[in-house]
Amino acid sequence: MCFFDENLDYIDKCAEFHAREINRVIPFCDYEETKQDLMLYVWRCKDQYRTKRASTHTFISTLIKTKRRRIINSFRHKRTLQTIPLNYA
Fold first, then answer.
1. Residue-wise DSSP of 34-45
2. Helices (H), 1-89
3. Which terminus of the chain, N or C, has fewer Cβ atoms within 10 Å?
4. List of residues 6+ apart from 34 with CB closer than 8 A
């Protein structure tokens, strides 16, 4: 059994919680799609896990929190760029 399969329940719960948090900040964001993005991010980064550095739960939580911050910051950055007036005189 691989890392992802062994921890699927925990990954699912973390992704679910953080997808709801993202949805609270970005209301029009699709909850299911966000949850899948978070889970996919963990799956892509699974090879970076080192048993000597942290527990699996710490590793998963850190990955998901990082991805959540990136999604929210990206949204805020795009929104800021849309509200900046371009005055060319």
1. HHHHHHHHHHHH
2. 3-6, 8-25, 31-45, 56-83
3. C
4. 19, 22, 23, 71
Residue carrying the six token digits 């942290």 = 54
Report the distance separating Cα 46 and Cα 68, nearest Å: 17
The type of residue at 8 is L
d(CA 27, CA 54): 33
Q: Which residue has the tokens 């805020």?
A: 76
Reported pTM: 0.81
Q: What is the pLDDT of residues 11-53, one digit of tens each?
A: 999 999 999 999 999 888 899 999 999 999 999 998 898 889 9
CA 84, CA 28: separation in Å to the nearest integer?
Answer: 22
Looking at the chain, the whole-number percentage of residues with pLDDT higher than 70 is 87
List, in order of start, the domains of the chain with CATH numbers. Answer: 3-80 (1.10.1740)
Closest CA to 43 of 29, 16, 63, 25: 63
